[in-house]
Amino acid sequence: TMNQQPGSSSQKNTDGLEKIRMASWSNEIVEQSNLYVAEEKGWFENAGIDYEFVPGAGGGEAVKNIVAGNADIAFANIEAVLLAIEKGADLKIIYNIYPENVFNLVSLKKSHITSIEDLKGKNIGVYSLSSGTYQNLQVLLHSVGMKEEDVNIIPTGVLNFAPLMNGKVAATAATDTGLYDAKQKGLGDVDVMEVKNVLNTPSDVFVVTSDVYEKKQDALVNFLQVYKDSTQYMMEHPKEVAKVAIEKAIDGKDEARNLEIIKIRNKSAENKKELGWLDLDVVKKVEKTYVELGLLKKSVQIESAVTNDLVEKLK
Amino acid sequence: MSIVIDDLRLAYDKKVPILDNINLEIQKGECISIIGKSGCGKSSLLKCVAGLTANYEGRVFIHDELIQEPHEHVSYLFQTPILLEWRSVLDNVLLPLELKRKVMKEDRNKAKQMMKLVGLQDAAYKYPHECSGGMKARVALARMLITEPDVLLLDEPFSSLDAITKGQLQKELLNISQVMKPTIILVTHDIEEAVLLSDRVVLLGGKPACISKEFWLDLDEKRDASIRFSERFVNVVAEIYESVEHL
Amino acid sequence: MSIVIDDLRLAYDKKVPILDNINLEIQKGECISIIGKSGCGKSSLLKCVAGLTANYEGRVFIHDELIQEPHEHVSYLFQTPILLEWRSVLDNVLLPLELKRKVMKEDRNKAKQMMKLVGLQDAAYKYPHECSGGMKARVALARMLITEPDVLLLDEPFSSLDAITKGQLQKELLNISQVMKPTIILVTHDIEEAVLLSDRVVLLGGKPACISKEFWLDLDEKRDASIRFSERFVNVVAEIYESVEHL
Amino acid sequence: MKKHLLYSFFLLVVLLTAWEVVVRIRSIPELILPTPSVILMDIIQLVKSGFIWPHLRVTVIEIIAGFLIGSLVGLLLGVTVSQSSLLNKVLHPYIIASQAMPKLALAPLFVLWFGYGILPKLLIIALICFFPLFESSLTGLRLVDGEKVDLFRSLKASKLQILWKLRIPVAIPYIFSGMKVAIVLSVVGAVVSEFIGASEGLGALIIVAQGSMDTPMIFSSFLLLTAIGVSCYQIMDVLEKKLFKKYTFHRRN
Amino acid sequence: MKKHLLYSFFLLVVLLTAWEVVVRIRSIPELILPTPSVILMDIIQLVKSGFIWPHLRVTVIEIIAGFLIGSLVGLLLGVTVSQSSLLNKVLHPYIIASQAMPKLALAPLFVLWFGYGILPKLLIIALICFFPLFESSLTGLRLVDGEKVDLFRSLKASKLQILWKLRIPVAIPYIFSGMKVAIVLSVVGAVVSEFIGASEGLGALIIVAQGSMDTPMIFSSFLLLTAIGVSCYQIMDVLEKKLFKKYTFHRRN
Ligand SMILES: Nc1ncnc2c1ncn2[C@@H]1O[C@H](COP(=O)(O)OP(=O)(O)OP(=O)(O)O)[C@@H](O)[C@H]1O
Ligand SMILES: Nc1ncnc2c1ncn2[C@@H]1O[C@H](COP(=O)(O)OP(=O)(O)OP(=O)(O)O)[C@@H](O)[C@H]1O
Ligand SMILES: [Mg+2]
Ligand SMILES: [Mg+2]
């Protein structure tokens, strides 16, 4: 499918629906339950869209999938987008899925880590060196002028709370849902430092290639409309959506958990303006921080890649 | 088919040749025996004629064809019976035919007939590891006879057989020799056998081995085991024995 | 060491026994020969005595010990020379000693001596695949003799050797037999050899095979090849040949 | 019940008991290491609710299809390369290279190139499992008694006939040994391929279970995968014993 | 220069050229698939700056140590199990189980149990690479000519002597075939083990490169790993040919 140019897939198929393939950073998990509701209720068809889910392993893969033409729109973290732009990809960020930074740093109460400085020389766990936990940990360290070398960063895998519990690491970088799950599994009393207090990076955004942005704008608007509506619906009917997730989400067998996760994500999706609205100032601040951190070599002119045009067209 | 060996020289390692200056002409339908001490080079010579050894000097012709690889109409009986352990005796005997064509009913019958010839009629469905030493040797013999070759190269065919069975098979070979008239080179260490079966006995000896003596035997055309007891026979055997001893 | 075989019966597959009702007593220092048709069960019998076959009925004693596994002082020469291809001829001959103790200088000398005995003095550093058929057989012979066993079980030791070499080795065996006085069971298909070398010839025959005849030979104590030409010898051979033929 | 099964089972019970006891005594949290009993309950739950079946199905299909492709390729390559020493020398570095490449890092590229369907997964599995078969068939096909080759040559057999009627029968036990390694590697391959870009299968399940810190489910998937691997191996073993007995029985000592 | 090297090199050039041309003509973005020339420049850069050395060192050490442990274990297990059919039947399911378990999913647990040092990495590598060696040595050790075993029995050889002086010499080519698969798998194992709990090594580098979307560096690490794998294999091959020639030369046909 690599040879398939993004534009070429824009023709409508037989039933008049336009194909939109959404590359996700994950497979079909509870967090994205609004999409399952939209599918179930036929909202995509109603909006003239033939929707397809493309699973992935990380935001980087999602972005690569749209660059390669395997998908039209990517559900990815903003760091991946910044890095891809730096590597020459021509991308447009069109929708702010989670304006809130969901990353945090968790330590056990008994180890008395209350400030970032307390971490000096200690082991800190991250999911992996390619995950947002790593980058957001760097942001935290940077905020107090510390460097990566001042602590001992260890990729511990996604089960990163386990080493925290058995004392192999002093603190672990995680996400809000991860923290929730760990608490359910008996994590006990913990101190949490939330990264959003330092830098409120939008956690996930919808991003497309400029080519798709030009050629498929109507379909994209329709897609975003459905997404926005379903998000709204999930905020209003979390219980119903949690039920839908049991069937559709691969990790959705526990309805009570589904509900909690949905509630957490509903909160992350809240926008001080309108659902999906991108705050350019925040994005620029993120870019600046990443340049300072050395994650980006220089500014990538992010403002030219961010647009609220489509969001403004939404009802 | 006639066989001509022209100035053959064979050395496994460059310095020490095993065979040197071998010249031999064998008429169509002739049967010659090669005798010589253990390790003198009899099997090596046979392998050259069989086209299985490439790096000898000199030339070997069969039916005027220069031998560089095995010849279609030549059958070679190895000194050890090389059987395929995963095939029954019958399937081992059928192998040469199987390599030539699809095996038919009549081929199987022929194989059974060959096995009867060598006294293995009851062993068709045994596997090699269930056969005695002599039985294996006879399977190999049946396998070589099944293609009705024009040239037989036999490397000690009967050495692992008891006197009676050996006598029977010698008779069969004489019979084949007289009826089908193949050209035969027989390597044997049994002088009586050599004299009984062949028209000429070639004595290989020396280091490197060459043909140190040839004995033309003008015994009865219609030979059978009974000539063993003729005076002429006993004398020839004694003469050859002596030559071998004084090699 | 004496050997007693008591009512032995052997069947590879349950229904058809190969050997039945075998009773044999062999004195210390005696040499007996076993002859019989190819496939009649000679090797099988020898394997029972060697302790390599477990599932026979009846009992075998060597020196009053019931044989269930190979006996320390018994050496068994297999019908085929089983050589280890990755060892030189010398190392193959040394194998039995190597399995008993650390190999010393004098062991190597002994091995070389054995190899001289079988006429392989020049082949010590050859590998099996560089040896002729008869050479391999002689390597196996040297390997079995090196331990100076009290009991020798020989399965067609000389069948792949030429007349001269065979004669020499027969002489050596006679010599060993007279000097060291081991107990010997010799399986052979050569009746003259049997008569020449042994005190008694046992004829195996029938289906299942049993001892169909025994010949006590009271030839000269100090035998050598020359007795071949004695009238008594020729008569005995003829008598045995006839018995074999009428089996 | 056969003796060895009894022992094997007994060993299993001992191991599981030890595990259970250690976890309980040291009161290791479930997140770090669940007890066998918890895992068992989880598996029962997964089976009862029917949740596991589609995942199991997908993984098993991938394993079998990937193994078939991989072993076919391995065997064919082994056979081809064994026939020509030059081809062997020229191709061998590439074949090794294809192995030494870490498939897990290759998987995302495959997904990019071939989409996220079953194709890239089968490719990954085939790529992972073909090598042992290739190596062992190559070794087996080459180590044939020289006298037997001479026999076939003297019978004017073609190279193909020598291959088919001599080398392959001789190599069968080694080919099977390679197949056994291959089938087990297929299981690994299936999981690796599902780690990236899959929304179904036991591998994907492990990933989400990790994401939701559902350690018992991680272990359940593990155990099921292990059971699949062991069963596949045993099937190969039975196949070898049943179908190809005559090529090995005279040699097993 | 030998003919096969020439061909092999020629094939390499053809493949690289094709790659370069395809990427350029279809103007595939570097993010997706860099050209060989870009990768080469990247490798040169990595080497020049010295950045790559510590990673390379760590990975090579892990590969070698893990391979040594794994092959020792594989060989010992193969030998032990070949000596007793009961032991074989009892242990075999567990050995297969250890293989079928996806190591990548096991890795985080190993890290949890054994810390972040080199130990869990060596364990993973050993666990990944011992199996082919185990299988092929088991097969090789068992398929010994029955007559030869009888010869040793008649010479009153002990089981150990039969093993040492008969079975192992016979099995050497098969053991080597297993070792070759094992050494290549060690490379894979090293990468897998470095995905979790490592901040050094080529595996960790791949992850970092993935995280920073540095596709050329992913490919550079790939290529270096592949080169390591191919070299290790060739070393094994030379070792076999040099040291153990006498066990194979009479059988190579
Ligand atoms: N392992 C075996 N399994 C089944 N049958 C066997 C086995 N070994 C031998 N036989 C059968 O037992 C019979 C006797 O075999 P044995 O090897 O003892 O004969 P032999 O007298 O030594 O013959 P030869 O003189 O040809 O060596 C034969 O019919 C043979 O087919
Ligand atoms: N492949 C080989 N490589 C090296 N030397 C060999 C090879 N084959 C045979 N020889 C040597 O060549 C000589 C002749 O061997 P050959 O097999 O021709 O003897 P032979 O006359 O058949 O003896 P026998 O009667 O014992 O079978 C022997 O000295 C042997 O060591
Ligand atoms: Mg010979
Ligand atoms: Mg016999």
UniProtKB/TrEMBL annotation, chains B, C:
Name of a matching Pfam family: ABC_tran
Spans traversing the lipid bilayer: none
CDD domains according to UniProt: ABC_NrtD_SsuB_transporters
Location of the ABC transporter domain: 3-231
GO molecular function: ATP binding
Nucleotide-binding is among the record's keywords: yes
Domain of life: Bacteria
Name of the protein described by the UniProt record: ABC transporter ATP-binding protein
TrEMBL record, chains D, E:
Keyword terms of this UniProt record: Cell membrane, Membrane, Transmembrane, Transmembrane helix, Transport
Domain ABC transmembrane type-1 span(s) in chain numbering: 56-236
Cellular location(s): Cell membrane
Chief location of this protein within or outside the cell: membrane
Keyword Membrane: yes
Membrane topology: Multi-pass membrane protein
Residue stretches spanning the membrane: 63-82, 122-145, 166-197, 217-236
A Pfam family per the record: BPD_transp_1
Protein family membership: Belongs to the binding-protein-dependent transport system permease family.
PANTHER family: ABC TRANSPORTER PERMEASE PROTEIN HI_0355-RELATED (PTHR30151:SF20), ALKANE SULFONATE ABC TRANSPORTER-RELATED, MEMBRANE SUBUNIT (PTHR30151)
Protein name: ABC transporter permease
